[in-house]
Structures are given as C-alpha cells and as structure tokens.
Design a protein that fits this description.
Blueprint: E1 18-20, E2 25-28, H1 30-34, E3 40-46, E4 52-57, E5 64-71, E6 74-78, E7 81-85, E8 90-93, E9 100-104, E10 109-116, H2 127-138, H3 142-152, H4 160-173, H5 176-189, H6 193-199
Antiparallel strand pairs: 1-2, 2-3, 3-10, 4-9, 5-8, 5-10, 6-7, 6-9
Length: 216
C-alpha cells in the first residue's frame, strides 16, 4: 500500500484469501492488508453451503465482536442460541465469553468481523501469523510455515503460542535443537501449554530427546 495515498481499498469478494481450518474457511486478513491499527477487522468466505463461516471460539482476549453479512446467508450460534442473517444484517456479540460459531447457508457467503475492547485501545494479536502459516503446515511445507511465522509475527515473535507453533515446524523439519529452544521458551511463558505439548504429534520427534518436555 502507498502510505501517502488518501485511502486504501480492497474487495472482500475478490481479494485473494488464506485457507484456514484445513482449507474449509477462506480468511481475508483485512486489517493487515489495509494497515489498520485502530480496530480489528477480518473477512471470511465460504465456498459452499454448510462450510464454516465463523470459527467456533470464544473471544479469550476479551473483545466485543460484530459480524456483518455482505453476501449469502449464515447461521450463527451464540451461547447455544441460533440466528440467521443475510446481506446487510449485523449480529453483535457483546460478551467475549459467549461461544460462537457459524456456517454458511448459501454458496459463496461472505462475512466481515469487526472487534475491539470497550475499555482499552486496540492491539494486534498473535493468532494472525499463526493463521497465515496454517496452509503451509497443512501441506507439510514446514520450512515455508516456519519462514511465514518468522516473517509475519513481528511484535508477537516472542508470544508463547507463536513459539509453540515454531517449535512444531522446526521439529518436523528435523531442527530438533532449535525446536526444543522454542518449546522451552513457550512453556516458560505459558506453562499450561505443557499438556498440549504432550499430545501434539508434531512434537513427536522431540519426545525422546534430553530436555523433554523442555520446561524449566
């Protein structure tokens, strides 16, 4: 993007997407591509009815979220209740702890999500570089996935979840020493990841090495 331009523009319906969730969901990283810093916003496309259009999740960072349907129709389930929404409709989820997830009711459905905190300025989150690396990981392109994490993580390079995923990629590449270093740092920052590490098959090459489970 030209930083001196008075505006920036992309098409949610035509912009190249990033496949996530095993390729069943098309993610358009709107905030990153437009360089938005004041709020979080992303878009999602579903090629076929029945495909995921909103990932099943809670907003653990504590953000309020609104979902805007711009094409097709979706069925959103929030805290066990369902709502169907079509083009131009907005569904607002004020409680970050409300589990939500949505499926497309029509082919070629597209939804924009906008989120932020009511009591603090917006800041980016480490899930974005992890999503960007998901497709390469799904294809078993571990060097590409590791390079994507390294390139895209920015200020989140030291985040526990980013280090954990980097450890997975390096372990699969056979770079076990570097993988153990990343895993040690991840578990030191977030000890609750230990249980995940014990089960994650991507870390299997590390389990018989000195230092496993690589926690302080």
């Amino acid at each position: 993007m030209n930083g001196s331009a008075p505006f920036r523009r992309i098409s949610i319906l035509e912009e190249p997407s990033v496949p996530v969730l095993g390729g069943t969901l098309e993610w358009i990283p709107v905030r990153r591509r437009l360089g938005i810093g004041a709020f979080g916003t992303n878009a999602y496309r579903a090629a076929a009815a029945g495909d995921t259009i909103v990932e099943d999740h809670v907003e653990s960072p504590g953000q309020e979220e609104a979902y805007v349907v711009i094409r097709g129709r979706m069925r959103l389930t929030v805290a066990g209740e369902t709502v169907d929404a079509g083009p131009g409709e907005v569904v607002f989820v004020p409680d970050p702890q409300s589990r939500r997830g949505g499926v497309a009711l029509e082919d070629d459905t597209a939804v924009i999500a906008v989120g932020g905190w009511p009591d603090q300025p917006y800041h980016s989150l480490p899930w974005e570089p992890i999503f960007l690396a998901q497709d390469a990981m799904a294809r078993g392109e571990w060097a590409e996935a590791a390079a994507t994490l390294e390139r895209e993580a920015g200020e989140h390079r030291g985040a526990a979840v980013v280090r954990f995923r980097m450890a997975c990629c390096l372990a699969q590449q056979g770079e076990t020493e570097r993988a153990l270093e990343e895993l040690r740092a991840a578990l030191e920052a977030k000890p609750e990841l230990r249980e995940t590490a014990e089960k994650d098959e991507l870390l299997a090459p590390l389990r018989d090495l000195d230092g496993w489970p690589a926690a302080p």
